[in-house]
């Protein structure tokens, strides 16, 4: 099961996203709100990409299925969809089928760094609607949609303001309101987990999240460890992840470690050395090199820039 990311553009920033798809440049580097009435879905058709970004999308008058990885995201019975970082999505119609007529709705695109300053509570990675197992857009009541639209309007207005000392915290707080409303709609539509259980990707996500929650008690995570826990060969786990997400297992581990490191560097008083040991690194220098390779900043530089 071989795959490559060569056919995917790599979108690391919100500006990368807007440039790739021909949207207006974002006013804020970490978040933008896009009016889909101005950009019909066919504009996306030939531009697949691997995004290191979150998307929350409300679509009206859209009747197709959007493929990501080797799955589809079904909009036939719902209007609100979610995409997490690492999910390669290609917006395109089914052959011979119209995608939409007079499309309406919005798309909120935001960088994971915005979540580092969010209010205390569940981290969005734990929200079930961002998991790979979810393949169906949510249906919304009129009240749900009205509340979501109000939250998106607040995000649009704040993201258009000149950046100041309050901007990032305000955007994080307003984003949290949007995600809480979405969580309510999700749990109303899916009050229990699917009877057949999560797929391999979801189980890997859950194991990795649990592992990092107890990072101080464990060594650096390895692909071998998760493959054994999932009862598959490491090569098979890597191939499945690469096929569905464009990244292999080791890249997933590095990404999760760096995201955990960012939260520790901003949310605790641990030194760089202590942070490295907390995450399971035996060599703090290797931790600093990996962090700089993935973020462009040293851990100390990142902490100072926040």
SSE map:
Blueprint: E1 9-11, H1 14-21, E2 31-35, E3 49-51, E4 54-62, E5 65-68, E6 71-74, E7 80-83, E8 100-110, H2 142-159, H3 167-189, H4 200-213, H5 223-230, H6 234-245, H7 249-267, H8 272-278, H9 284-295, H10 299-305
Parallel strand pairs: 1-3
Antiparallel strand pairs: 2-8, 4-7, 4-8, 5-6
Helix pairs in contact: 2-3, 5-6, 7-9, 7-10, 8-9
Describe the structure.
The chain has 306 residues and is an alpha+beta fold. The chain has two domains: 9-189, Jelly Rolls, CATH 2.60.120; 200-305, Homeodomain-like (Arc Repressor Mutant, subunit A, Orthogonal Bundle). 42% of the residues lie in helices and 14% in strands. It is built from ten helices and eight strands. A four-stranded antiparallel beta sheet has the order 2-8-4-7, with helices on one face. Strand 5 (65-68) and strand 6 form a beta hairpin. Helix 2 (142-159) runs antiparallel to helix 3 and helix 8 (272-278) crosses helix 9. The longest helix is centred in the middle third of the chain and has 23 residues, at 167-189. The protein starts with 8 loop residues before the first strand and ends with a helix. Residues 1-6 and 193-198 have low confidence and may be disordered.
Total of domains: 2
Largest sheet: 4 strands, antiparallel
Dominant shape: globular
CATH architecture of the largest domain: Sandwich
Order of helices and strands: EHEEEEEEEHHHHHHHHH
Q: What structural category do the secondary elements indicate?
A: alpha+beta
Number of helices: 10
Keyphrases for this structure?
alpha+beta, four-stranded antiparallel sheet, 42% helix, 306 residues, Jelly Rolls, 8 strands, 2 domains, two-stranded parallel ribbon, Arc Repressor Mutant, subunit A
